Amino acid sequence: MALSLPLVGSIESPLTSQTLSVIREYLPSPAPLLAAIDQRIPMPVKQLVAEAPLNRMFAQAISDGEFDEFAGRRIRLEVNGGQPGITIGFWAGRLRVVDGPGEATIRGSLAAFKTLAERQQDPDQLFFQRRLIIEGDTELGLALKNLLDSLEWSTRITF
């Protein structure tokens, strides 16, 4: 005789969602651990891991010429504190991961970048609330923000 037990909580339940939210809020940031890992990964590996997905995600926009105004330019996306971070450029019709600083830097917390990537909040709000900050060539940073805001793309990030 099989005994079935009622499910106490499913992945979709409000209790599970609230519990995960509290855990995410009070656990220490993974940024220091990610920074330690980031500093030990050689640039060719970063390029291999990041370039193909970025170019796939934005393939239509790249083929439509949406990124052409960024040709030869470098923008750095950086977690508060400087590491981890990634500098992205656009050359020969492809997004490239490059070593070094960017002409513009967009800096924020992991949570702010996750919110931006998943399009959970209007990008302008993230900047007005100072959750994301543009430094350096702000015109370049705002141009990228406006481009990303105008494109149709989505992603789901879990951590």
TrEMBL record:
Do the record's keywords include Repeat? no
- Keyword Kinase in the entry? The reply is no
Which GO terms of type biological process are on file? ubiquinone biosynthetic process
* Superkingdom, natural source: Bacteria
Query: What positions does the domain SCP2 occupy?
Result: 55-149
Name the UniProt key words of this record, in alphabetical order. Ubiquinone biosynthesis
Pathway named in the protein's UniProt entry: Cofactor biosynthesis; ubiquinone biosynthesis
- Entry function: Required for O(2)-independent ubiquinone (coenzyme Q) biosynthesis. Likely functions as an accessory factor.
* Protein family per UniProt: Belongs to the UbiT family.
The molecule here is called Ubiquinone biosynthesis accessory factor UbiT
Species: Marinobacter gudaonensis
